[in-house]
Amino acid sequence: QKAPIRVLVTGAAGQIAYSLVNFIAKGDVFGTDQPLDLILLDIKLMMEVLGGVVMELKDCALPLLREIVATDDYEVAFKDIDVAFLVGAMPRKQGMERKDLLTANVTIFKGQGQALDKYAKKNVKVIVVGNPANTNALICSKYAPSIPKENFTAMTRLDQNRAMAQIAERLDCNVNDVNKVIIWGNHSATQYPDVRFATAVKNGATMIQKRGAAVIAARKLSSAMSAAKASCDHIKDWWFGTGDRWVSMAVPSDGSYGIKEGLVYSFPVICTGGDERKYKIVQGLKIDDFSRSKMDLSAKELEEEREMALSVCKD
Ligand code: NAX
User: Which UniProt keywords apply (predicted)?
Assistant: First the structure.
């Protein structure tokens, strides 16, 4: 039998985590033959609530779930972890400016980066869900210099899943038969959902979404269950590989498509799986003027976020 892996979920007393911990513990992400320890981190104030989540998890009687640790202590939480779902963040409150939200969260993700650097396995895989997700991932990575940059990613998979579901509905086909939908950029209103390359198989035929086809309308953030599902999809594909499917992940840019190096930007990627668990940005896609301007707009927003975040961190 496989050795258990250690998986951390932060914001574990929150909404998304309430679905997420069950998905993980029942084998949806790492496979139904992979035992795991689940480490649940939240703030002190939430420990009682978290205790309730632990009770429920136990009551699910999940055979893959070994140890459950509920804690507000970073050392306990980050120690020797293989994978981190960083969901917990300061929520946007009424009257709060984007900058206030960013400032509060940069401080949290700086601390979590330092904890990752100090305590986690050096090959730990990180997905940041908590907003502003891309910039939180960038800050986290900055403060965890001993962990490869490419191990820090942010979630745009919910945006991809939403786009795929809409396309499938319009074309009356199964969502599994939709491929090559891309989310470029930031997980924010400036993201660019690109359906120019999308393919959908219907009745055995392949239909290509034409340029200028209806683009996905802007929507509110969805319920916690779909966000939890999307974070599972992201990590599962990274863990096991995607074959020739494209998936969108916000990853540190290597300069592809003219996006400044180091920005955590959503690209279409292919994950290799295997022992290496690498991902590669899909190369060679034609970028028309419309796409260029959309992609640059999102990059510009991320540069502004980076500047703001770094001015908060100072050191
Ligand atoms: P909730 O407010 O229900 O839960 C957040 C939890 O995080 C709370 O229990 C809180 O106590 C905890 N928390 C706060 N600071 C913490 C810290 N320093 N360490 C550990 N835990 C901490 O929010 P929920 O609906 O679960 O959403 C979580 C985050 O996901 C939010 O930032 C939200 O904006 C973001 N989202 C990101 C999405 C994406 O696609 N990237 C989509 C869904 C979601 O909106």
Answer: NAD, Oxidoreductase, Tricarboxylic acid cycle
